[in-house]
Prior knowledge:
The chain has 758 residues and is an alpha/beta fold.
Amino acid sequence: xxxxxxxxxxxxxxxxxxxxxxxxxxxxxxxxxxxxxxxxxxxxxxxxxxxxxxxxxxxxxxxxxxxxxxxxxxxxxxxxxxxxxxxxxxxxxxxxxxxxxxxxxxxxxxxxxxxxxxxxxxxxxxxxxxxxxxxxxxxxxxxxxxxxxxxxxxxxxxxxxxxxxxxxxxxxxxxxxxxxxxxxxxxxxxxxxxxxxxxxxxxxxxxxxxxxxxxxxxxxxxxxxxxxxxxxxxxxxxxxxxxxxxxxxxxxxxxxxxxxxxxxxxxxxxxxxxxxxxxxxxxxxxxxxxxxxxxxxxxxxxxxxxxxxxxxxxxxxxxxxxxxxxxxxxxxxxxxxxxxxxxxxxxxxxxxxxxxxxxxxxxxxxxxxxxxxxxxxxxxxxxxxxxxxxxxxxxxxxxxxxxxxxxxxxxxxxxxxxxxxxxxxxxxxxxxxxxxxxxxxxxxxxxxxxxxxxxxxxxxxxxxxxxxxxxxxxxxxxxxxxxxxxxxxxxxxxxxxxxxxxxxxxxxxxxxxxxxxxxxxxxxxxxxxxxxxxxxxxxxxxxxxxxxxxxxxxxxxxxxxxxxxxxxxxxxxxxxxxxxxxxxxxxxxxxxxxxxxxxxxxxxxxxxxxxxxxxxxxxxxxxxxxxxxxxxxxxxxxxxxxxxxxxxxxxxxxxxxxxxxxxxxxxxxxxxxxxxxxxxxxxxxxxxxxxxxxxxxxxxxxxxxxxxxxxxxxxxxxxxxxxxxxxxxxxxxxxxxxxxxxxxxxxxxxxxxxxxxx
Length: 758
């Protein structure tokens, strides 16, 4: 009684559970069907083989999963365009037992004359099974990634009918959905006859709301006809409680109401649920009266249907509240505060646009600024959120409006224009480095609100471009044959702070047989400006870079970078800055991280680099957040293994630095807390012989500042594995030790941070 009343009669203070042993092993069989009803008709026969689970994924969910970068690879084994996919799971003690059970299932289907679209696929590998189950569990969030105002609405969200009537019920629902001129998403616990059916309905219109009501009542009548109910596992709640009188009849419903009054005469226990519920139209998130202000945006939001619809992509599933897994959301993992989750930020933006709860119905609200302040723009939500809420893009847009109204702070301008400031400091690098070593930069840090504990990156006495020019002079005297050109897009830090990264990249590309092109006229990618809301400044630089790089991209010449946030800006943000420029797509298609590019060549059997034949070092690799979101660390791990390194991934989320975020005094402690979550312990657990490798400068700085461990860019690790006779230095007519050893300034800085040459 207390369980089925779901908190409407009493509060449970103590519960004793009976547990069952976890299965030793599980096996999975994928069954694909050309028709949804046919797959439901197969369920009773499948149950005759004794499976532990039979789960349904419908066509809409499969297609949406395929469109999501963070989930697409997990269902790569699904072929073609099936209307329905059933996951059939069996328990077993051994592989042999599981194979016997899965073989019996296949034979049973043949004997019963049940055809499938393709040959049933048996999956015994635990990782591949986990991938499939993670997609199934993320089903709701993936469905809500549908763009536009028509969303999968929980009209028939939890209906449960006897398994023998599944096919008939689903067939009737398909007719109902078609009669209302829409389509629906289907997923289900088919083994229990529990269906989650979500028709696409626009609840921002009165007609859409009426459609929801009509379909809910019609589906209820169908459930009753086939011996089912509308709440199989999720409970009634505000969505379905008004249907209970229709389901149970007036006599039973009156008894339920009387019983509720006996236990809860004052109506304190979860009121409005099960009995005496308000209409399902009263508590809509949107509804016909909902109006969102659609601002004129700096970035292009046409693909999302506008800024407001980009915000509305958040459906409240709260995947962003996960802990100790993935990268989303790093600030929530540190504070455990709802306002610091992606969901909290999306709700604040939605309220601001709708004018529901904040004083200002625009994008200049100090309250919203406070909610967005701890967003690191890591982009993890773009991949790890099943609905692909892109909070980094939303924050950039918000900051542009906010600073337009309130003025841009000096610190935002300084960090946004770090490339120009680095160019000015470079000619006096020894003086600047000396002042930092002596602590004379304290007043500057204080004026800019930089944490005094932070060490700023030293400036190289000789920039990458200086070294590149000298290298070109040496190469001019050496006759060479190449396989074609490759552009190295050298970022600000490789140019002015860590030129050895650029040197390593050129070594790798030349060892692979390419003639390297370095465009000295290139501008900053604009990413630092975007992180500070300086969108128009970033757009100007984007135009310059597109004009410069487009001829290479159109000719199929790859553009290679070593800083993820820089080179991936060409692939991601440039589409939003210059949406109508056809050259942007060409550049995006030809832009690669150095390790990604080398892994691509290796996969095609066309790498060309001769690696040392001895065993490489043990490597702990930590990927950059933008890299993990847009590429993944798979290429990095692949090419490290190819070069003979014993590499493992850190398993950590965001490092906590995130460009200038970790340098800002008010963010210093939370930056540390984020790193302490998983990254710092992973580094501490390695031996001193392990090479700690990174892809981004932010990760390098964060690890060195808080762990004291020396780090190497992955390009440096790989360049050191090139066999003698295949490296940049060995092709030069004279030694170039300054391109191998650290400069005096780098060495002193390394001693100061206890991290070796940067």
